[in-house]
Amino acid sequence: QDKLVESGGGLVQPGGSLRLSCTASGNIFSLYTMGWYRQAPGKQREWVATITSGGRTNYIDSVKGRFTISIDNAKNTVYLQMNSLKPEDTAVYYCNANNPWVAPKNYWGQGTQVTVSS
Length: 118
What we know:
The protein is mainly beta. Helix content is 3%, strand content 49%. It is built from 1 helix and 11 strands. The longest helix has 4 residues.
């Protein structure tokens, strides 16, 4: 069964770092663009970063220069390295796989909590 499995969340002080991992099973990694979203309490889920199979990356403005998305094709894994974390980065982070040309168009991970607090 195709699915995404996330790990790496936790509690960190402001200015600290965390790395999230998302491993894709089946054919997801070869057919889908991988990305990360987050949802803070009381807010809508928002897009954070995307990486294409060719390695092109895009980021929401609020994380540019602090977060880095990368992929390891041999491990079918996408990472989100988060540095200089701020309290406003606190959210549940979701891994996403998207391909508008196939069905299903999206896969989602189970979510991992990131809390930035002193």
